[in-house]
Design brief:
binds adenosine-5'-diphosphate, nucleoside diphosphate kinase activity, binds magnesium ion, binds guanosine-5'-triphosphate, 4-stranded antiparallel β-sheet, 15% strand, alpha+beta, Nucleoside diphosphate kinase
Length: 161
């Protein structure tokens, strides 16, 4: 029974969150990170990068026939993005709810898109939309060695005088 618990505890769900170029340029990174921390998720990977076109075209492969696809790639290349991996119970579904509708005009106030954006072509943030998609996107954006496993600790037990 103890072994079973350890196995289950070891496969906590992860998702890819990316602050898009407009979010970085508008200095929204800190507020977005704060929302995920406050909700109780654990940051296990984070980097600022100018996304390469091959990564973006794989990332948005499902949309490559859409009329807005060229504009989407231009948007995502228009400055650095902050890519993050967050971990926790139901993190994929919960982070989609925190992010809000793809179209900010439909996104509820209180969601990230509902609070910080007005137009679908500048919607501030990306969040994986399924557990399988998250695994694929994390693998695409991060090297395994860039992800850090760490335990929450009760600091009071390590205070020293
Ligand atoms: N310019 C433009 N961009 C769009 C349109 N539809 C979607 N996009 C952009 O393409 C992104 C990807 O679309 P989706 O994957 O369907 O939406 P999403 O899953 O909410 O957004 P991501 O988290 O970025 O994947 C959106 O977040 C928008 O930035 C559109 O009609 N026009
Ligand atoms: N109709 C649209 N017009 C412009 N951009 C769009 C449109 N649909 C999607 N996008 C862009 O493509 C991104 C990815 O789309 P999608 O994966 O469907 O939504 P989400 O970002 O909510 O996961 C969106 O975040 C948005 O930036
Ligand atoms: Mg999407």
């Amino acid at each position: 029974m103890k072994c079973l618990f350890i196995v289950i505890a070891g496969v906590s769900e992860r998702t890819l969150i990316a602050v898009k170029p407009d979010g970085v340029q508008r200095r929204l990174v800190g507020q977005i990170v704060q929302r995920f921390e406050q909700r109780g998720f654990k940051l296990v990977g984070m980097k600022l990068l100018q996304a390469r076109e091959d990564i973006l075209s794989q990332h948005y492969h499902d949309l490559h026939k859409k009329p807005f696809y060229p504009n989407l790639l231009r948007y995502m290349s228009s400055g650095p993005v902050v890519a993050m991996v967050w971990e926790g119970h139901n993190v994929v579904r919960t982070s989609r709810l925190m992010v809000g509708n793809t179209n900010p005009a439909e996104a509820y106030p209180g969601t990230i898109r509902g609070d910080y954006s007005v137009h679908i072509s500048r919607n501030v943030i990306h969040a994986s939309d399924s557990v399988e998609g998250a695994q694929r996107e994390i693998h695409l954006w991060f090297d395994r060695r860039e992800l850090v496993d760490w335990d929450c600790c009760d600091h009071s037990s390590s205070y020293q005088v």
